[in-house]
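Incident log, structure service

09:12 report received: a user says their structure output differs between two submissions of the same chain.
09:20 pulled the input from the user's history:
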Amino acid sequence: MHAVPAEVGTRTSVPSGASSGTLVRKARLPNDRRTPAAARALVRSVLEEAGLDGLLNEALLLTTELSTNAVVHANTDLDIEVTADPGGLTVTVTDFAPGPVEQLAVGPKNESPNIGEVAERGRGLLLVDHFASRWGTVHEGDGKGVWFHLDHRGTGEEAGRIPAPADAPSLGALTGLLRSGSDRQTEDGQADLTDLATDLLSRLARLTGAAGGVLRVDRGDGMGRQLLARYGRAPRDNADTIRVPLTVYRPYSGELELDAAPVGYAQSLAVMVAERFSLHLENDRLRRADVRRQTWITFLAEASELLAQSLDVNLTMALIPQLVVPRLGQWCAVHTTDTWGRLQLAAATHADESALVNLHATLAESGPESILARLEEASRLGSQVMFGAPMEGFAVPLVARGARLGTLAVGRHVKHRHDADEVAVLEDVARRAALAIDNARIHDERRTVARTLQASLLPPALPHVEGIGFAAEYVPTGSEVGGDFYDVMPFGEDRWLVVVGDVSGKGVQAATVTGLVRDVIRILVDDGKSLSDILQRVNRTLVQRGGGRYCTLAMASVTRLADARLGVCLHLAGHDRAVLVRADGKTSFVGEGGTALGLLEAITSPDAEVTLGRGDSLIFYTDGVTERRRGRELFGSTRLRDAAAPLAGYPADAMAARLRSTTINFSVEEPRDDIAILVLRNDA
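09:34 re-ran on a clean worker, output below:
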């Protein structure tokens, strides 16, 4: 019986004129790896409904090939139309990519029974031409594609349209080759590449009669081309072999090598297998790239968080190399510019600690070819520069808010050079690091300004008075000036005035009000005003010029009495009560609360008389002491009084220092408010 050749042609629409028994199904499928399976399911359902089960194998094979080509090569959604009637099955697969169907110039009819002798019009059309009764192209609007028709065979007809010779691959073998790997998917939908490659090689070798084959892949990770799968013996150097490169994007590359002569259908099947595996390898590349990008995003987020936590310049610069090595390089060095624009090494680290000494020596070398010269070039030009062996790597400038702060130098990995993703991440790290350094410098400058301004609001030293001990401790917080202050000054003949106050708020305005209160008090003391008059006039001044800020004040006059005693007249203007510590260790709170200054036009300020015998002490403090926090717990005035009791026999400076230490050690948190402690002691 003679074989019926396939008819080849083109049409602009699906064949019409179908009888009333025609069954038509249409569907639009997404650009997705699961689309070929969906297309097969649609064709299978139509065949079962139409009773054309005898066409199942050929129909599924050709549908798989055409839908896979539409997804892989056209990279668009696809339309599939399946038409079944008593005469056979017609399937049309249409994509929406611009340009012609892959080499769709229609050639002569295929009258050869050997698939290896079919003229190449692309791998997909090769199979269509071999198995379809007739096929052609379709052009409808913005879509284009391929259709094929399979004639229905009666029960008495031959099972195949073209009887294949004994050495030609069977339809089942070709179907198995194309569907290989579909059942080898992991939980994330990815096929195991090694198992898939081994299975494809074994099937290909059995179909072509090859003695063996290998599949090598280079993932661009510096390890070179690695053997991924092998079947049978390795291809011999002096024998005819088939070599097919894998069609994947950089940095991936690879090759399939088959120990078989490139004759008959062997070359075409090898290309088919290479393209099929290339699709899985490209999916692996995309998946790995996505995982790697997610890893870099996480790394940058963590690096930013770590850099943002430190506002210390030296700590920030020491942290940067630790973030880079060894993940992004073998070694890393941070240089910063000094006042004259010269680069100074700020921090460096090496993955091999024994090589750190040599790294420092190399970075210190000068000369036109030295690393330092290249770093100066990067800083001057504000662009990336490379440097060669023996410390191969590159450097990027550290730039923040338009200012060039220095350079970040990174050495290449031991086994491979930096890829594009790593370079981009390092440039991002450099930007974040430069901003962190600049922020730390700004914070350091603000802290220095705040400390200098704060120091100007406090006396440089307390007076030394025979028989009377004065001592103070002050702990500033943050980079803003606080409103806490203290002072001790002469207050007439053999009398002294002790002042401890706290202006509301922080910052320059609070510092301005603090200076105003302190200066007004000194002027009024020089004028010989009484304590009540001083408080009244300070209150009036704050109401008029305080800008809405108020001040709490503890003010006490100290007078020598007979029998080596000290008389203290204490006024509290909204301030915490002082702690009285007797020489025998007994403690108590003294003073009566009055009105804070700057809130009301008229204030009340009751006084309290206290007599200090030998060894007695009076402790003044601000709310930074009592409001020191440990979680939700406050240090409190009671804990302060209990801490002062054991210090009864200590001099004033020791008492102040111990109370300061006790307050600070109460919590691991940084103090939230300034802490001021002043101790008055009768040292007679």
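09:41 both user submissions now match this output. Likely a transient worker issue. Closing.
09:42 reviewer note: The longest strand covers residues 551-560. The CA atoms of residues 75 and 485 lie 74 Å apart.
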